[in-house]
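User: Hi! I'm working on a homework problem where we have to compare a predicted structure to a textbook description. Could you give me the structure for the chain below?
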Amino acid sequence: MQVDLTHRIETEMTVYPGDPPVCVEPHAVYDQDGYRVSVIQLGSHTGTHIDAPSHVLEEGRTLDTYAIEQFTFEAARIDCTGLSDREPITVENVPDDDIDLALFWTGWSTHWGTERYLDHPYLAPDAAAVCAERGYAVGIDTLSPDPTRTQNSEEIDSTGLQAHHTLLGADNLIIENLRNLGELSDRFELRAYPVALGGDGAPVRAVGTVDE
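Assistant: Happy to help. Predicted C-alpha cells:
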C-alpha cells in the first residue's frame, strides 16, 4: 500500500515565517486561450520539502549532487504523538536500528493551516546529534526539526537552527511538513523525490510504501 505524505501546494498555504508566500494563479484559461497554464510562485522550502546541506552551510552540498536513489529511505516511524506544544523530542525517542531515516510522528500535521502549527514539538539538540552519529536522515510532520520562533517562544526553546546544522553538517537530509503518518507502519519505505533544482531545498512528493 502507498500512502501520500505530501501537503497540497496552494495559494496562501502555511510557510515558515519570513519565507515567500505561495501564489498559484492562472496565466492562460480555456475561455480565452483554449488551454490552461498556471503561474506558481513559491520558496524552495515550501510545503512538504527536503533540505540540502547548502540550506544552512555556505559550502554545503546542493540537491543536484545527490543520486536519485539517495531519495529512497528504509525508515522507522517513531511515535511522539504524546508531545505538547514546543516540547522537545529527546534522545530516548531516537531509535538504534538499521535504517536510513528516522521519522518522528508528532501528529502535528492535524494543525496544518492554523497558528498552532508553528508551536510544534522539535528535535532536541542532543537527539539531533545522535541521529547524525547514527547516519540517519530525519523526517518530521512539523514545520521544522528546530523550534520555530513565535510570540509563544521562550529563551529555553529558542535554539536557533541547531538540529539543521547538526544533521545537514553530517550530510544527513531533512524532510519537513510530512502528513498522514498515522497511516504508516512502524517500518516502511519512504520515497521523497525533489523537484530537479540545484539548490538548498525543494518541494517533494513524499510517498510511504507499507506491506499490506
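For your comparison, note the following. The helical segments are 30-33, 125-133, 162-169. Residues 62 and 199 are 5 Å apart (CA to CA). Good luck with the assignment!
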